[in-house]
């Protein structure tokens, strides 16, 4: 039996709505692609933010090391430094508590879950994601005297 509308044969009654299935499958496919793109974009945003933080920390540590080496080169005798009797001209007091940073704001330097060291420990050692842990031997770096 075929269905007619206005004198035109539309085909068997079993074909009515047959375009619905391919359209639904295409909608599902496009929805899955869109969700995957959103997830990838979110992951890339987090990765780039962490890379920026790591780069800033690396440059700050490199600058601090350079300043320390320059100050130590100016000394004739390192004995007071090694014994703890001498302090750097750039010393900002003890290494704990809140420290003010240039441009405003402060950072809790040491000790506790909310400190910079505590947050770093919480994000690396306790993380379930293996990719966020620091590798013990990094490619291109000499991890020790046993390295060829």
Largest sheet: 2 strands, antiparallel
Number of helical stretches of at least 4 residues = 3
Q: What radius of gyration results from the CA coordinates?
A: 31 Å
Overall outline: rod-shaped
Content of β-strand: 5-15%
> Structural class, judged by helices and strands?
mainly alpha
Write down the secondary-structure element order: EEHHEEH
Widest beta sheet: strand line-up = 1-2
Number of strands: 4
Distance between the termini: 83 Å
Low-confidence stretches: 130-139, 142-148
Quaternary structure of the protein: single chain
Tell me roughly what share of residues is in helical segments: 40-55%
Arithmetic mean pLDDT: 75
Structure write-up:
The chain has 148 residues and is mostly helical. Among the domains are: 22-79; 91-133, no CATH class. Helix content is 46%, strand content 10%. The protein has three helices and four strands. The protein has helices at 20-73, 79-83, 116-124; strands spanning 2-5, 8-12, 98-100, 106-108. Strands 1-2 form a two-stranded antiparallel ribbon. A two-stranded antiparallel ribbon has the order 3-4. Strand 1 (2-5) and strand 2 form a beta hairpin. The N and C termini lie far apart (83 Å).
